[in-house]
Amino acid sequence: MITYCKNCVMPGTKPDLKINHEGVCNACESFHDRKEIDWHERRQELDDVLGRYRNKTGENWDCIIPVSGGKDSTFQVIKMLEFGMNPLCVTATTCDLTEVGKENIENIKKLGVDYVEMSPNPLIRAKLNKIGLEEVGDISWPEHIGIFTIPVRAAVQFRIPLIIWGENSQNEYGGPAAASNNNTLDRRWLEEFGGLLGLRVDDLIDQDGLSRRDLIPYFYPDDAELSNAGVTGLFLGHYIPWDGLSNALVATAYGFKVSENITLGSMVNYENLDNYQTAIHEYFKYLKFGFGRTSDHASLHIRRNRISRETGMEIVKRLDGKFPWEYLGKSLEDTLKPLNMTVEEFSNICDQFTNKKIFQKDSQGNLLRSKDGSLIKINYDNP
């Protein structure tokens, strides 16, 4: 039996989610605590931090903003420009960039910023996509590493100390830039924050013919390089109220494009628009832990009193965990081609990473599926 938070729709199977004796999860508790935050004071703290790192001579950029072209990174750029910062925007090209993703990256450039893009070798990345999928159940593993390593490498190369990240899942933490001393990043902090999922880059050397030179974009600079450049970072969501829907509305007003329809496995049309592989990544989250992006969105909107928990649960039952036959118009078969993988081989990998304790099975122990091939959870709410 899966236990769910009685306030939102999150299951207890989510990693690091804790449900207290009253049946409320720590994510809901954290959101409730944020209501007590003095946002005016936080904004003053942000002004102080930005003031310390703003380039006084105008000879270099004030900060680096890692951007994907999504709603949140678009919002970050808008806010930094409002705050008078002169950012260098850095993109680590996504694994399988969508058409709307291309448009949204071009839109960020038009906001009035300098911009650089690093596109790792697609042949190497396809190998990493396949290794990530087969070994840790994450086709997007190289993207999730590169979105952290590449902006940090740029910070060292261009000697720009401050990196502006968006939301931090641990909301109470503003980032090392806020510290009065010892505020420089080190590789240990970066690797913990970046999330390697137990698969270290060093371990990939000699796999499928990979050498260290093939993996340069995925390594962090060493501690000496980070220290010499004084690289540090902050989470903007610690200093200003952070809300995906609000960010999307602001970004849209500045040219950000949304999807015509809600995206597969989601209940919104403004998120996860840049990568055709996203549906696969989200589906594996559902297989492992019994929740997908719809559960994430529904829980966020329930906490903000936009929808009731009952409505959220019905939406989750209808939309969460759909088998990724296609995403934003691209078929699963075509998405798997660069990996030299068939849909049948993909399905076998899915079975390997499925937590069979949380899905319905027949009398022979075979997983039951709906008409569209999606798995059926043993329960969708508390008794």
Give the gist of this structure.
By secondary structure, this protein is mainly alpha-helical.
Please indicate the percent range of residues in DSSP E strands (runs of 2 or more): 5-15%
User: Which class of secondary structure composition applies to the elements?
Assistant: mainly alpha
CATH class label of the domain at 39-239: Alpha Beta
Q: N-to-C SSE series? A: HHEHEHEHHEHHEHHHHHEEHH
Give the averaged pLDDT, no decimals: 92
Describe the main β-sheet briefly. Answer: 3 strands, parallel
Name the overall outline: globular
Architecture of the domain at 39-239, CATH level 2?
A: 3-Layer(aba) Sandwich
Fraction of helical residues: 40-55%
Secondary structure: number of strands: 7
Report the CATH topology name of the domain at 39-239: Rossmann fold
Strand arrangement within the widest β-sheet reads: 1-2-3
Roughly how many Å apart are the termini?
Answer: 9 Å
Number of DSSP helical runs: 15
Instruction: List unreliable stretches of 5+ residues.
Output: none
> What Rg do the Cα atoms give?
21 Å
